[in-house]
Amino acid sequence: MNNYLDISPEVAAAQRDGKPIVALESTIISHGMPYPQNVETALRVEQTIREGGAVPATIAVIGGRLKAGLTTQGIEYLGRKGTGITKASRRDLPVLVARGEDGATTVATTMIIAALAGIKVFATGGVGGVHRGAETTMDISADLEELARTPVMVVCAGAKSILDLGLTLEYLETKGVPVIGYGTDELPAFYTRTSGFKVDYRLDTPEELAAAFRAKQEMGLGGGMLVTNPIPEEYSMDADRINAAIDEAVADAKRLGIRGKETTPYLLARIKDITGGDSLAANIELVLNNARLAAKVAACL
Ligand code: PSU
Ligand code: MN
């Protein structure tokens, strides 16, 4: 086993018993939602995975150790510290680990640690992508590169239009990452079920998702797979309203000169304020929905 990795007793027992395991990220806790909804949601997501017959492995870096599986206290600690914890992508791991520091793992880093721990399925809300204006800023999330190289299935609710969805799909195509719509031909746009962009393939059952992922690994193609699962109809937001809020948030970020890793957390918080908290409610529901699907796929694998 990797010398830097700690697998929690619950996750280790699940591995011994051959039980399905679902990885969860921690940047969504520290930087994606405010306290205390972040902690409540993280615990509800874990509970949802247990109800689905799988074992949750929330992933983070604590005191320089890569953790697969956190305690409730660990989740509470990350949630309270919030943006006081380093948002840790691939490039951040070496120094955080060498210094014995904490890090909240993004999609990219959660994939890395899940793969080290032998976990194949990971549920989250949204993934990073190619940002609007990337043709001049070059702001392309390391999440996309990780999907290209690390063999973990990421179940998300699509990508939100804080990103350039068309360029994000182009990038994933170049990198050979299959983008699957679960029960849909269209890429879901996180808060809404449609975006106007087509996914590569529509698959309708957890078994089909598992079979495609297994085939990719067994052929030696490596890398991940992006499963996009639309937010349940009853929680989806009005497209005009959410798009206006996103445009306003993107304009504010530009005016304030927000850059780099601050961009995504700033936009999420700003959109929540502009929508009077409604975007957060939708965000919570779609994460729970993704956890349910991920537990089913993990059981098939
Ligand atoms: N999108 C969300 N919620 C999030 C994130 C993205 O709706 O919490 C987080 C995830 O951890 C994702 C990261 O991996 O932001 C991407 O950040 P960046 O764009 O800086 O790569
Ligand atoms: Mn970025």
Q: Could you explain how this protein is built, in words?
A:
It is a single chain. The chain is built from 13 helices and 11 strands. It is of the alpha/beta class. It starts with a strand and ends with a helix. It is globular and about 50 Å long. The longest helix has 23 residues, at 278-300. It binds pseudouridine-5'-monophosphate and manganese (II) ion. The site of pseudouridine-5'-monophosphate has 17 residues, from α2, α8 and α12. Pseudouridine-5'-monophosphate binds at residues 25, 27-28, 31-32, 106-107, 125-128, 141-143, 261, 264, 268.
- Residue ranges: pLDDT <50 for 5 or more in a row? none
CA distance, first residue to last residue? 21 Å
Provide the list of bound ligands, each named once: pseudouridine-5'-monophosphate, manganese (II) ion
Number of helices: 13
What is Rg? 18 Å
**What's the story with the biggest beta sheet?**
11 strands, mixed
Q: Quick check: average pLDDT? A: 97
Beta-strand segment tally: 11
CATH architecture of the largest domain: 3-Layer(aba) Sandwich
> How many domains in all?
2
**What structural class results from the helix and strand content?**
alpha/beta
The H/E string reads EHEHHEEHEHEHEHHEHEEHEHHH
CATH-assigned homologous superfamily of the largest domain: Indigoidine synthase domain
Morphology? globular
Q: Fraction of residues in helices?
A: 40-55%
The level-1 CATH class of the largest domain: Alpha Beta
CATH-defined fold name of the largest domain:
Indigoidine synthase fold
